[in-house]
Amino acid sequence: MKLWPVTGLFIGLLYAGASAMAETALSLYTAEYKTKLAGLSVTLTRTLTEKDGRYHLTQGGKKAFMVKLSEDSLFSVAGDQIVGEQFVYQLSGVSNRRREVLFDEEAGTIRSLRKKKWTEHPWSPEVLDRLSQQEQMRLKLLLAAAPPARISLSIVDGPKIKLKHFDLIETAVLETPVGALETVHYRLIHDEPDERSSDTWLAVDHDFLMVRTQHVEKGSETVIQLQNAAVEGQAVTGRAP
Description:
Layout: H1 9-19, E1 29-37, E2 40-51, E3 54-63, E4 67-78, E5 81-93, E6 97-104, E7 109-114, E8 117-122, E9 127-128, H2 132-143, E10 150-157, E11 160-176, E12 179-189, E13 196-203, E14 209-217, E15 220-231, E16 234-235
Parallel strand pairs: 9-10
Antiparallel strand pairs: 1-2, 1-15, 2-3, 3-4, 4-5, 5-6, 6-7, 7-8, 10-11, 11-12, 12-13, 13-14, 14-15, 15-16
C-alpha cells in the first residue's frame, strides 16, 4: 500500500467530506465483525445507541456453548471528550474473565476490577475504559480539521491507568466484504514494541467506523474484520473491486 504524508493537500481534501458532516455528538451504528475467540471463529456484533444524551456501546458474540463474550460501556459526551459511567467485560466458556469499571464523579473515584481485585483511582473525565476508547478516537477524528499525527488516550484497566499513543501510519484503500473503503491507519505505540503490535483502520467516508484491527503478540495474531454495517441507518458500502 502506498504511504501518504501525514500532512498535505491529499489528506486535507480527503478529510473535507468527513469532517464537514461532523457534529459534537457521535453518529450511531450497528456493525458485524469476524474474529477468533479461544481459537474459534466468532461473529461479533457491535452497536452504539443513544438516549437522552447517554450512549450505550455494546459488543458481543458466542460460539455454541464453547465461548461467549459481552462488553458494555455507558458514557456521555461533553464537547470533544467522552465521559465514562460504567464498563463491564465478560468472557465465559473455555475461559472465564470479568472486568469492570465504575466512574463516580460525585465520589471523585474510578474503581476498576481486574483478576478479581478492585483498585481505586482519582476520578478524571479524560480516563476511558477499554471499549469507549475506540469511540473517543472516532470523536477526535470527526472533530479534527485533519487527521492528527498522534492521538493519545488514557485507559484504565485494573491497577493501572496507561497513557496510550496512537500514531498515524498512512491513508489506504482497504478491500473489505462491503467493498473498497478509504481508511486512516493508526498504530498503537507500545513501550516494548518487539512484544506486541496493534493496528486499527477506520473508514473515512463512514464517520470513522472501525474497519479492521490487528494485534500480534508473542507470535499470535488476532484480527477483527468488518463484515457489514449501517451508520445512522445507512448501509456502509465501498467501491467495487
